[in-house]
Design goal:
mainly alpha; 5 helices; about 130 residues; single chain
């Protein structure tokens, strides 16, 4: 017997963040199969950035924020929750779009478009339901 109750909006939004992060991670992992990316990484560069403690700390924060949103979406008070989901989804859409500049590999575009679609849905659902 199917449950007739809809899934709580916070669970849906939390799941959207988790799904986006899985795609985000796999796109980055798949990049390591590219000789150009791997050679740059071995030379201590990622795109236009030198790999340094600062770069790795900022990259960690970049991944930690949406990771925390999986949990925070479930527990933050309504107004803060709505604002955090809309603002952060928007900021991550901008950074994902910026990472596509100059990119020619189809897998990267597919992953990025899916990430953006998921984040647009986060913002839409947060606007409507939180």
């Amino acid at each position: 017997m199917a449950n007739s109750d809809p899934v709580h909006p916070r669970i849906v939004i939390s799941s959207l963040w988790a799904t986006m992060l899985f795609i985000f991670a796999y796109v980055d992992i798949f990049a390591l199969f590219r000789a150009d990316v791997l050679e740059q990484a071995l030379a201590g560069r990622v795109a236009v950035f030198d790999v340094s403690q600062t770069f790795l700390a900022l990259t960690t924060l970049y991944v930690v924020i949406p990771s925390l949103m999986i949990f925070l979406t479930l527990v933050l008070p309504r107004g803060i929750n709505r604002a955090a989901n809309i603002v952060l989804a928007g900021l991550y859409i901008l950074t994902i779009a910026a990472s596509c500049v100059g990119e020619t590999w189809i897998y990267f575009w597919i992953g990025s478009l899916l990430e953006v679609a998921l984040l647009l849905e986060v913002a839409r659902r947060a606007w409507k339901t939180l």
